[in-house]
Amino acid sequence: ALAGETPRADRLIEYLHRLQDEHGALHVDHLAALADAMKLARAEVYEVASFYHHFDIVRAGEAAPPALTVRVCESLGCAMAGGAELAASLGSRLGADVRVQRVPCVGRCDSAPVAVVGQRPVLHADADRVAAVVAGGERDEPLPDAVRFDAYRAADGYRLWDAVRSGEIAGDAVVAALDAAGLRGLGGAGFPAARKWRTVAAQPAPRLMAVNIDEGEPGTFKDRHYLETDPHRFIEGMLIAAHVVGIDGIWIYIRDEYPALRRLLAEELDCVRAAWPDLPPIEIRRGAGAYVCGEESAMIESIEGKRGMPRLRPPYVAEVGLFGRPTLEHNLETLWWVRDIVAPAVTGGPDPFASRGRNGRKGLRSFSVSGRVAKPGVVVTDAGITLRELVEEHCGGMLPGHELYGYFPGGASGGMLPARLADVPLDFDTLGEYGCFIGSAAIVVFSQHDRARVLAENAMEFFAHESCGQCTPCRVGTAKAAELMKQPAWDAALLTELGTVMMDASICGLGQAALNPMQSVLRFFPHEVGATKKEEGAA
Ligand code: SF4
């Protein structure tokens, strides 16, 4: 597992991946040997390995899992497209030598339902196609047809980076351009990017950077889209950010479900390092199937080789982040926009954000659209577009035979809106009055053939599965809510009280937002759950 390296505690998860890749699972005696080699307590290695869903631990006396696993996505888009039925049919079809697992979102909601054979995704999967891939022996995902380094450079790529690193364009001008464009963090939190850069730059060196490509929010697949089409636009933005803020080391955390993108990124970063050998160190880190690691401080814990449990704040990661150092944390897409915003601002061209936006909003947004639309996919269009406009203008309308019944405006955690609110501008800060938020702009559209309560239950089971367990309101609350939501008639008073406790007392956004879809059902689709109000004084 160490492959000749001097062991580093922060690389524990990388070593666990190597062990599992080599042996098909993590055997407890291997874990013990790894702990000894790393001079770590065996309990420490075990607690990390057992935290992440993608590690299979084989304890003494247990049989190893079958050599091949087929993962079938059961999150929102795939559930609507028959994921559960697919998983059930595969169980009997593929036999005992193949393990079929139902798993949360694999980031390919535009091609639902999706199964993953080994590491090879089968899009628009049915049992025949999955069986054919299993029989054909294909296990790896092919590299995407992305714009590679030479082609990117030939098209004037890295010109802005050259200008920034040479001092031709001052760092202050770069930050001012981001400010003027109003670029906000596009991982979901929406924090102004320029303010983050200034805050971290004002901290003492060494300063570090952590890039979040762990998109696990059901319905979100935009980062995958950008990385598999134009990775250098993101890398150029990342290098510019690192230079302007004065970063001494960069860690890129990418979800385990994107193996081909991890290989692509490694290859392209080699080209970048060859072109500019004096860059700060850049390390790629592989996630291990924990949605909560999309939360910035949990990701940082994971990069440090620990369980991905969110930290209490303050201090904020901009002040005390990765390895205790001030850290600039960004989602891939935020960095992807840097080049296009900064280049025109400093060379006098039009600001791509300023000229866009509608319904009173400004800028561009990347919407991951899935569900019951004719043409799902990533749509880059005006901030403030409405769901009705988005579906009609960019997604080919609804699927034949489907009428709009409602939608998730911000993935599983962003709540749900009914069809009568299809004309609300979609952007940061426009959905609060409806108890919703746009988050990473993952739009999941559902129709009269779906039930909002079933989708809310699906989302709640996902959160119960992904809760890191650190705080009681979330650990117990998500499981309790999932149980309560299975009742034919919901106890609105009890669920609302539970939601309030979770919102007020959970450490991170997972627990705080987990009940949003439930609250949306009570508010907008109460006829589905025969919502009852608990009587005063009732037990
Ligand atoms: Fe973990 Fe949930 Fe608490 Fe977040 S809210 S720290 S996911 S238990």
Describe the protein in words.
This protein has 22 helices and 15 strands. The strands form 4 sheets. It has a 5-stranded mixed beta sheet, sandwiched between helices. Strands 4-3-5-6 form a 4-stranded mixed beta sheet, covered by helices on one side. The C terminus is likely disordered. Helix content is 41%, strand content 14%. β5 and β6 form a beta hairpin. By secondary structure, it is α/β, with parallel strands linked by helices. The relative contact order is 0.10. Iron/sulfur cluster (SF4) binds next to α19 and α21. The site of iron/sulfur cluster (SF4) has 14 residues, from α19 and α21.
Helix and strand arrangement:
Layout: H1 12-23, E1 26-27, H2 28-38, H3 42-51, E2 57-58, E3 68-73, H4 76-80, H5 83-94, E4 98-103, E5 115-117, E6 120-122, H6 127-136, H7 149-154, H8 159-165, H9 171-181, H10 193-201, E7 207-213, H11 222-229, H12 231-245, E8 247-254, H13 259-275, E9 282-286, H14 296-303, E10 327-331, H15 332-336, H16 338-347, E11 364-371, E12 377-382, H17 387-394, E13 404-408, E14 417-418, E15 442-447, H18 452-466, H19 472-484, H20 492-505, H21 509-513, H22 516-524
The protein binds iron/sulfur cluster.
Shape: globular
Q: Quaternary arrangement of the chains shown? A: single chain
Tell me the structural class.
alpha/beta
- List of distinct ligands in this structure: iron/sulfur cluster
- What ranges have pLDDT less than 50 throughout 5 or more consecutive residues? 533-539
